Structures are given as structure tokens and as C-alpha cells.
Amino acid sequence: MARCTIATADGYSVEIDALHIGESTAGILVGSREHCWQCGVDAAPKEVAGYWGGVPVHLIVPAGVSRKAEMPPQWRINVLLQTLTTIADRNADGSHLAVIFFRHSIFDAPINDIVRPMVEQLRWSQLAKDFWW
Fold this sequence. Notes:
Layout: E1 5-7, E2 13-23, H1 33-42, H2 44-52, E3 57-59, E4 75-83, E5 94-103, H3 111-120, H4 124-127, E6 129-131
Parallel strand pairs: 3-5
Antiparallel strand pairs: 1-2, 2-4, 4-5, 5-6
């Protein structure tokens, strides 16, 4: 994937540093619809911490999908975003944020086109945190 720079709603230019795509309910063999939502959606931030550490996480809950009537969308997209622009501490090396969102299909558009509208709506200064290398 080529480098992709996206402007957030509050004007930060951020880059996709890493991307992970998986099935939202992978590994769930049995259980109620609510159990699938709890494991596939609600627990997603904890799973991201397993491979991206202490990066702040913003979960975008699937819109237009009834938790009571439908299964979660099939695909969970985890995106690690970063910029060399800091938020609070000028001595930091930059700021970062992991964003998790869901889709029914990932094959209908290039991944940059799928990620871009989800990132453009973010208020980076309210969600991201400074980091130091």
C-alpha cells in the first residue's frame, strides 16, 4: 500500500502507518447475536492493544446496523494513524491513534478509499495522543 496522507476534520495531516483487516466474528462458533456483537465489536479495542500496545483507540460503532436484529458487519478494519505534529507537548515526536471501524465488504473499493472517509471525520486533537520514540 502506498503512503496515504489524509486531513482530519480539525486540520491535522495524518498517515496510515499500519493496517489490519479481519473478520469481525472470526472464531465465534456459537452464541447469541448479542454475544457476537460483544466479541466482534465491543472487545475490538482490547484486541488492538495486543499488537499496537498503548496507542489510544477510537472505535466507530457500525452505523445503520441494528444490534438487536442483525449480525455485525463481516469485516473489521483497524488502522494505525500517525503524524509528526504533536497535540499537547511540543517536545513529543508526534501523535498517533488507532481507529477501528466495520464494513460489510472490503472488495468494493481500494483500501485507501475505504479508510479516507472514516479518518476525515475525526477530531484528531480530541482523540489522538502524543508519542515519544
